[in-house]
Amino acid sequence: MAIPAIRSSRPEPLRTLEALLNEHSVTHAAARLHLSQPSVSVQLARLRDFFGDSLFLPATGGMLPTARAEQLRQPLRDALDALKKATAPAATFEPAKATHTWKIAAFDYREFTALLPTLPVIRQAAAATRLSVVQLPPLQIARRAAQGDIDLAFLIRDEAASELRYRSLFTERYVLATRRGHSRVTRRPTLSQFCKLDHAIVSPEGGSFRGATDAVLDEHGLSRRVAVSVPHFLFLETVVSRTDLAAVMSFRLVRDHPRLQWFELPVPVPGFDLLMAWPERVHGDPARLWLRDTIATSL
Q1: What's one Pfam family the UniProt record gives for this protein (predicted)?
Q2: Domain end among 67, 87, 107
C-alpha cells in the first residue's frame, strides 16, 4: 500500500505519524520528536483530515491506532527509510571494492597520451572495474554524455561544448619527426630544408593535404610537399618510422618512440590544450571524481 503525498514540502507529518504509531501517546511522541505537545496535536489533526480517519482513539494510558492507521504502518516505514537514504550524504568511493564500468570517449592520440598512462594506476587501485573506450565525433559527445552513454571524454579546447564541465590536462606542442637514421635529417632543419622534405600529415576528416603547418607557411610565402595523408596519428607514427617521410607531430607521441627522432620546428606551429570533459549529472559523484583525479595526476 502506497502512502499518498501529503500536501507539504517537508516530512514532519509523516514522522509525527510514525512516532504516534510507536508511542501511542501525543505526550510521548512530542518528547521523541523534540516538539511541543500542542505542535503534535496540530499535526495529528491535519493527518486525520488528510486521511479522512481518526487514526487514533482514546484508550487507557494513551491512544490506540485504528485499522487505517495500522494499514499505514509498513508503507510509512518504507517511505521514511527511502527518504533517509535519499537525503544521506554520498557514500565515499573505495577503489579496491569498486565494480564500476567506466565509459570513456577517446581515440587515437587521446587514447595514447591521456588514457594509456592512467591504465596501470586504475588496474592496480581498482582491479574489479572495467573500462569501455568508444570513438565518438566531438559534436555528439555532449548529447551522449547527457544520455548517460559516457562518463568522460577527451577533447581539445576548440571542440569544447558549453553543456559540459572541463578540466585542462596539458598543453601539447608540435615537433618535426623522422625515422632514426634518416639520410637528410640529422639535425634541426632550416626553414628552407624543412620545406624541401616530403611530408605526411593527419587529416581526421580524411583526404586533406593541408594542416595548421601549411597555414603558418602561407604567412611566410612558403609551401611544402605533402605526399601522404592519413586519418590517425598512431598510423602516422608507423608511416614515418618506415619511410623517409617527415611529419609535424605531437611531442608526447614521439618523445620516447624507439624508431623516431624529433627536432624543434624551424617555424612555430600553434599547439593545443587537451581537456577532460564530463556531464553535469556525474560532476559530484565520488566514483567519477576519483577517476578524473586519477587521470589528471597520472600524466
Answers
A1: LysR_substrate
A2: 87
* CB contact at 8 A, 248 and 194: no
pLDDT digits (tens, 9 = 90+) for 89-137: 666 899 999 999 999 999 999 999 999 999 999 999 999 999 999 999 9
Q: 3-class DSSP state for residue 29?
A: helix
31 exposure class (CB count in 10 Å sphere: 0-12, 13-18, 19+):
middle
Q: Are residues 33 and 73 in the same domain?
A: yes
Cell 516538539, residue located: 35
pLDDT, tens digit, 9 for 90 and up, residues 215-234: 999 999 999 999 999 999 99
pLDDT digits (tens, 9 = 90+) for 13-64: 888 999 999 999 998 988 888 889 999 999 999 999 999 999 999 988 889 9
Which of 273, 288, 280 lies closest to 163 in space, CA to CA? 280
pLDDT of residue 12: 80
Looking at the fold, whether 32 and 160 belong to one and the same domain comes out as no
